[in-house]
Amino acid sequence: MTRIQANLVLLLAAAIWGGGFVAQSTAMKAIGPFWFIGLRFAVATIVVLPFVWMENRKTEKPLTRRNWLSFFLIGVALFGGAATQQIGLLTTTVTNSSFITGLYVVFVPLIAVVFLRRPPHWIIWPAALTALGGIYLLSGGSFSRLTIGDFLTVVCALFWAAQITLAGSSVSETGRPLGISAMQFAVTAVAALAVAVVAEPISIADIQAALGQILYVGIFSSGLAFVLQVIGQRYTTASQAAIFLSSEALFGASLGGLLLGESMGPLGYAGCALMFIAMLAVELVPELVRRRSVVA
């Protein structure tokens, strides 16, 4: 695969993820958020299982109890992110959700600073301030105008960052990215369905009404897009991969406007631009600095 082809594959993965925001939002016209999360990740678990079987055949190192515990904690973090994002979509727009969720790119190194005691790259601090300024403009110039859904989506981004941090260390230790995916999907599905059974009404008609969205995010957003990401990143640079994967937020906002008729004022668009710049800066600047030092 050429680099251009790989970048197009990553762009397709980002577009699929962007479309997932629209599916998540429209599904809740027919079904509760926890039923949607549970069914979505149940489908995703089934989709990934054949790939896990193939991965296990190639991996000889057995999993330890500590590995299984880390897989479970990754699933807990994923459930937290999925739940706060899905509930947030009840009171925020697809555009806001897609950009605010993307702030996990900024939060990941901040989590590494606080919990893993890793020294931060200098770009983290201006990027964090830029992202905060973006949220401020997205609210129209007043934090008081942010909805509960916006605040929940910020919490969602923190959960995503925790999930990415935990998954990164577990993949390095076990070499089982697909096994981790299946486990986190299964944990999230069980936890969400347990809450849904207690807290939300359901009927076969409700499931049928949201079936298209459930299958889209279960098969494509969680299954296909993950595989595309893994394939594409093997044949391109980290910096280029970051650019194309970060376009998920742009696709989410564009599809929200096209399919749902969402719109915002000039300040909102400026806020989205600032957050997108912060996302790219965190990914690109350390890579560019590293390249220069290698060349020097």
Give the secondary structure arrangement, pairings included.
Elements: H1 3-27, H2 33-58, H3 65-88, H4 94-101, H5 104-115, H6 124-138, H7 148-174, H8 177-199, H9 204-209, H10 211-233, H11 238-246, H12 248-260, H13 266-295
Helix pairs in contact: 1-10, 1-11, 1-12, 2-8, 2-10, 3-7, 3-8, 4-7, 4-12, 5-6, 5-7, 6-13, 11-13
Walkthrough of the structure:
81% of the residues lie in helices and 0% in strands. It has helices at residues 3-27, 33-58, 65-88, 94-101, 104-115, 124-138, 148-174, 177-199, 204-209, 211-233, 238-246, 248-260, 266-295. The longest helix has 30 residues, at 266-295. It is globular and about 60 Å long.
Key features of this structure:
single chain; 296 residues; mainly alpha
Gap from first CA to last CA: 30 Å
Number of helices: 13
Order of helix and strand elements from N to C terminus: HHHHHHHHHHHHH
Low-pLDDT stretches: none
Indicate the mean pLDDT. 86
| 3D shape | globular
Which range does the strand content fall in? under 5%
Rg over CA atoms, rounded to whole Å, is: 19 Å
Structural class category: mainly alpha
Major sheet = none
Helix content: over 70%
